[in-house]
Amino acid sequence: MKFRDGLAGFALALSLFTSAPAFAHEDHEAAPVAASHPAGSASAMPAMAGMADGMDHAEAMGDAAPRTIPQRVVRWLGAMHPAAVHFPIALFIVAALLEIAALTLRRPVLTQGTRVIIALAAVSAAGAAALGWFAMGWPGQDDATHTAHRWLGTSIALMGLICWWAKEHWVRRPGRSREWLYIGVLTTTAAAVLVNGLLGGMLTHGMRHLMF
Predict the structure, then answer these.
(1) What is the Cα–Cα distance from 154 to 91, expressed in whole angstroms?
(2) What 8-state DSSP symbol labels residue 112?
(3) Residue 116 pLDDT > 80
(4) Which of 55, 135, 144, 182 is most deeply buried (CB count within 10 A of its CB)?
(5) CB–CB of 159/188 below 8 Å?
(6) pTM summary value
(7) What is the structure's pLDDT at 113?
């Protein structure tokens, strides 16, 4: 019995010892908040009003979420644009590198898979451009960066389809002129993809996100 009583007393003392610093820490963190926003002050009222509205920061800032089902669908589709653009970016760049390597190294075997890659790149670019329009809405009060990103992305979707056509045209009817047409369109498209990816990064992460 003495051993059990002593063990229970030790456990009680240990729990009080460990919980006291936690309570003191909570009080220490709560004190600056209370001091910075005294009860009844004008600065505390907007924060309490924002907290009362379901803790929604966007609604507290006046940016209310869409209410209708079509508005929610458009916002949901637009939110997928940043993820969808990675597919055509990677596919167009890989296809361009393989075609350039095949020309410079004189190894046509490197281009065996580019036919499928170009088709996937063209389809995914069209889908990413459509999602971009859902994300940005109709042209209105866009700044220069948004305008350039919007229309360059739309042009890339069209150039991707031309690349796909040029590749199929060259494969089915081989010829030097058709080959150079395809290479030229593909190189232009890959360069536009890189530029538009940079613009998209500026819109997402800020103008100085690549500063060394």
Answers:
(1) 17
(2) T
(3) yes
(4) 182
(5) yes
(6) 0.65
(7) 87
Residue that the structure tokens 């500026």 belong to: 202
DSSP symbols for 145-195:
HHHHHHHHHHHHHHHHHHHHHHHHHHHHS--HHHHHHHHHHHHHHHHHHHH
136 within 8 A of 110, measured Cβ to Cβ: no
Q: 113: which 2 tokens?
A: 């898979």
pLDDT in tens, 170-185: 989 988 899 899 999 9
Residue 108 corresponds to which tokens in the numbers above?
Answer: 């046509």
Count other Cβ atoms within 10 Å, centred on residue 119: 17
CB proximity list for 117: less than 8 A, separation 6 or greater: 91, 94, 95, 98
| Residue 44 pLDDT greater than 60, yes or no | no
Q: Hey, what amino acid is at 70? A: P
pLDDT digits (tens, 9 = 90+) for 155-175: 999 999 999 999 999 989 988
Run of H or E including 141 = none
What are 186's two structure tokens? 């593909």
